[in-house]
Amino acid sequence: MANKDYDRLVTERINQYNGHIIAKNGQDKLGVDYIDLNGFAFLQFTIFTATTVKTLKGCNVKLICASSQHEIQSDTDEIESDFSHELNTGILDFDIDLEDEFEGFLFENEVTQIQFNFEKTIFEFNEINLDLLSKVVAGEFNVYLEEEE
Q1: What is d(CA 58, CA 74) in angstroms, rounded to the nearest whole number?
Q2: How confident is the model at residue 61 (pLDDT cuts 50, 70, 90)?
C-alpha cells in the first residue's frame, strides 16, 4: 500500500509541475524556476528522467559555450530522484545560488550546452531555449518565499 501511495504522490508531482521546461534530451527534460527566499535568489533545476540519482555530494552545473564555460556547485548537497512507476520516469530537483557571475556568463555568452555532473551520472542538454532561460534568470517568473521564524 505504501509503495502505491508513494507512486501516486510522485506521479502527481510530475504531472503538476508548472515550471519552465527549457531543454530536452531524448526522454529527459530540464526545467528551471527562479526562487527568491527572503531576498536571496536561487535557481531550482528540475530534471525529469528515468535515470535514478542519489548523492550526498550535490551536483556541478556547467554552462558551456564555444570558447569557455562557467561552473557552479549546487546549493543542495543531498539529491535523490523520486520515481513514478506509473509514468516510468523520475523527478529530481536541486538549487543553485543565482550569483552575479553565473548570470553575467549566461547573458554575455551563447550557451550551447548545460551539463549536470552528479557523483555517478552526467546529464547533458544541448538544445536549450535560451530566451526562456534568460527570462527566468532575470526574474520575470518569480516565486517569492518567506522563511517561517
Answers
A1: 6
A2: very high
Q: DSSP E strands: which ranges in 3-138?
A: 20-25, 28-37, 40-49, 54-55, 60-64, 69-73, 79-80, 82-84, 89-97, 113-117, 122-125, 127-128
Q: Do the beta carbons of residue 128 and residue 111 sit within 8 Å?
A: yes
Asked if 94 contacts 56 with a C-beta cutoff of 8 angstroms, the reply is no
Which residues, 6 or more positions from 63, have their beta carbon under 8 angstroms from its beta carbon?
69, 70, 71, 102, 105, 106, 109, 111, 113, 114
Domain ranges of the chain: 2-143
Element housing 142 (H / E): strand 142-145
Look-up of cell digits 569557455: 68
User: What is each CA distance from 139 to 43, 61, 100, 101, in whole angstroms?
Assistant: 10, 20, 13, 16
Residue holding cell 554575455?
A: 108
Q: What is the pLDDT of residues 81-117, one digit of tens each?
A: 999 998 999 999 999 998 889 889 988 999 999 999 9
